[in-house]
Amino acid sequence: MNTDFRVNYNHQKIADVQPNSVGPDFVYDLENQVPRSRATLTFDYTRGPVGVTARFNYYSAWRTTDGLFGSGNPPLDAYTYSARTLLDLEARYQFTDVVSVAVGGTNVFNSFPDKEQNGILRFLGVNYAVTSPFGFNGAFWYARLTAKF
Predict the structure, then answer these.
(1) Cβ(89)–Cβ(105) under 8 Å?
(2) What is the dihedral of CA 42, 46, 52, 58, to 10 degrees?
(3) Is the CB of residue 36 less than 8 Å from the CB of residue 60?
């Protein structure tokens, strides 16, 4: 079994902003829309022609403002979105040295980010935060046939 653990810590800081170029909400969003920490833990097991992979993806909480529609007073008009852990799974079978098949899914528990908190975006039909680091489409299932030539 192969195990892989990766962690990264993000800290964005805008050091200098030219006068009248962008507002304080925009700067705040650039510095805070990315989760502060991200981690991935992967287990990959292969025995003979059979293999399975399980991957846990962790995203810490993150913050965003109303952007162009904001008060221009971050972090007072900022929203906090919850941390999430997602699970990806894959099973595969190697038929020959050339042909293999795999089935799997990403975000198999169909997790979604918190509901959009910006009233204007909700009015426009946005259900989930568009800046979510892991998307807002839920689970994705696939089948893959691989042929090496």
Answers:
(1) yes
(2) 0
(3) yes
Report the alpha-carbon distance of residue 72 to residue 88 in Å, rounded: 39
Q: Name the pTM for this structure.
A: 0.85
What's the order of all strands across the beta sheet hosting 84-94? 2-9, 37-47, 50-59, 84-94, 99-106, 140-147
C-alpha–C-alpha distance, residues 69 and 71, integer Å:
7
What is the full DSSP assignment across the chain? -EEEEEEEE---------TTTS-HHHHHHHHHSS-SEEEEEEEEEEETTEEEEEEEEEE--EEE--GGGS-S-TTTT-EEE--EEEEEEEEEEE-SSSEEEEEEEESTT---PPBP--HHHHHTT--B-TT-TT-SS--EEEEEEEE--
pLDDT band, residue 20 (cuts 50/70/90): confident
Q: Which residues of 48-65 are buried (b: 16+ CB within 10 A; e: fewer)?
A: eeebbbebebbbbebbbb
Dist. CA 105–CA 140, nearest whole Å: 5
Phi, psi of 143 (to 5 degrees): -130, 140
